[in-house]
Design brief:
Length: 186
């Protein structure tokens, strides 16, 4: 049964960006490129760490997140919000500190925990953007991404900090973003 949930989580995660892509191309959504670049780099490194720790199910799921976020980065460079504010710079400095700590301790489990922390710092510019300009975000993308995280948890065959951290975090952050955008728009 876990392989079914893995496929479902992967499909939902990749498909979750389709409403966002549509809205970007229509000029409705303007992704905060700071967050999307961070998310792409983080999920790429997390995927490598998860493969290194033999957490293949989570690694396949995070690989799908790399494809999804990378798509938004490519579009966001042309159509998104690519200006760095002071807040964005502070968040990106936090990301760099997180990468350094990850490298310093050289532990797959610590790497995934650091990745979640870094991801959260990288998400803060989009949380802020969603609060200030909810009409420039697509709540459905975040709702589907959170749902993908639920199915990723259901797909797990082992439960430990390395396997659980990222999918649970995805459920949390995406539910938060979807809720902010949806409630502020309506």
């Amino acid at each position: 049964m876990s392989i079914f949930f893995l496929y479902l989580a992967t499909i939902i995660t990749v498909a979750s960006v389709m409403p966002y892509v549509r809205d970007i191309l229509r000029g409705k959504s303007k992704p905060n490129i700071t967050s999307w670049i961070t998310w792409t780099l983080i999920t790429a490194v997390a995927t490598i760490a998860e493969f290194a720790n033999s957490e293949y199910i989570t690694a396949i799921f995070t690989s799908s997140a790399v494809i999804a976020t990378g798509t938004i980065v490519i579009l966001g460079l042309r159509y998104g919000c690519a200006k760095y504010s002071f807040f964005d710079v502070v968040c990106q400095l936090g990301v760099l500190v997180g990468f350094y700590l990850w490298w310093l301790f050289d532990s797959p489990a610590l790497a995934v925990v650091a990745m979640v922390t870094i991801d959260l710092l990288g998400a803060l510019p989009t949380v802020r953007h969603s609060w200030i300009a909810p009409s420039e975000e697509t709540w459905l993308t975040y709702a589907f991404s959170g749902l993908g995280g639920v199915f990723a948890v259901l797909a797990l065959t082992s439960y430990n900090i390395t396997s659980l951290s990222y999918p649970i975090y995805l459920v949390f952050i995406n539910t938060l973003l979807a809720t902010i955008i949806y409630t502020k728009k309506n």
